[in-house]
């Protein structure tokens, strides 16, 4: 237990003591900071770019809308699909790392955040029977005067809208996400992200878009260690 606590703490401090500011969206804080009273998105409570109050809207199920963006235009999402949608919303609004992938010309947006293939595949499976009317959630709506989103096309299952998890991850939020070739140096919206971020946010990976193979190996080693520690603890990762 102690060993786990020490290892985990080291991961947390090394990834959060560097200062990254937050995205420039309407709900973002200027700088990340602790939000101990978060009801949802608690993965980021140590260092969050959203206020705890923002997460109140996400803290119940079903989520009807976030601000003016309705989630139920094609009917209520299934619980499993909603959970993935929340993870993405939490990352965008609250992650202290999101600004690392800030869009060069639109500072409220992110670009090419590397997601794990398995995360995208699981997300796709969770949503495949839910319905959606936009291929690009950011651009394909019709907005009314109050800023609320409405479908322009008919609702179809996710499994018809997107060919697979890769297609979904790389289309649904425009250019925001890409599927990583690595199974370790990628984000999956759980506590493993703290470790992946340590490598992804390092200076060497900033220069080239691909991460070096030694970082890949180091990441894989750490991941195995983390998984072993978790197993010994009997803790299940989400
Ligand atoms: C809703 O949108 C407004 C303006 O776009 C923004 O100022 C506000 O912070 C948003 N609130 C939430 C909870 O998203
Ligand atoms: C996913 O769909 C895309 C687009 O249709 C296709 O190019 C790609 O080969 C598919 N990938 C897998 C793993 O099936």
TrEMBL record:
Keywords, in A-Z order: Disulfide bond, Signal
Domain Folate receptor-like: 22-188
Pfam families tied to this protein: Folate_rec
Keyword Signal applies: yes
Region described as Disordered: spans on this chain: 205-238
GO terms under cellular component: external side of plasma membrane
Single GO MF annotation: riboflavin transmembrane transporter activity
Compositionally biased intervals (Basic and acidic residues): 229-238
Domain of life: Eukaryota
Regions crossing the membrane: none
Cleavable signal peptide: 1-17
Family from the record: Belongs to the folate receptor family.
PANTHER family given in the database record: FOLATE RECEPTOR (PTHR10517), RETBINDIN (PTHR10517:SF19)
Name of the molecule in the record: Riboflavin-binding protein
Organism from which the protein derives: Nothoprocta perdicaria
Record lineage: Eukaryota, Metazoa, Chordata, Craniata, Vertebrata
């Amino acid at each position: 237990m102690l060993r786990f606590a020490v290892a985990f703490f080291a991961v947390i401090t090394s990834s959060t003591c560097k200062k990254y500011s937050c995205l420039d969206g309407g709900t973002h804080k200027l700088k990340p900071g602790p939000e101990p009273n978060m009801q949802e998105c608690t993965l980021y409570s140590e260092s969050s770019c959203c206020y705890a109050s923002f997460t109140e809207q996400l803290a119940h199920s079903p989520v009807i809308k976030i601000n003016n963006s309705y989630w139920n235009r094609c009917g209520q999402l299934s619980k499993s699909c909603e959970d993935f949608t929340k993870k993405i919303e939490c990352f965008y609004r609250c992650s202290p790392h999101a600004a690392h992938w800030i869009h060069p010309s639109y500072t409220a947006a992110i670009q090419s955040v590397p997601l794990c293939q398995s995360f995208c595949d699981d997300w796709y499976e969770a949503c495949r029977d839910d319905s959606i009317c936009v291929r690009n959630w950011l651009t394909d709506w019709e907005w009314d005067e109050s800023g609320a989103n409405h479908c322009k096309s008919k609702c179809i299952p996710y499994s018809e809208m997107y060919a697979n998890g890769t297609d979904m991850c790389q289309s649904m939020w425009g250019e925001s996400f890409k599927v990583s070739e690595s199974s370790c140096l990628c984000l999956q919206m759980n506590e493993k992200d703290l470790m992946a971020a340590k490598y992804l946010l390092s200076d060497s990976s900033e220069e080239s878009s691909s991460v070096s193979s030694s970082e890949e190996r180091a990441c894989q080693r750490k991941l195995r260690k983390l998984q072993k520690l978790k197993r010994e603890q009997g803790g299940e990762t989400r």
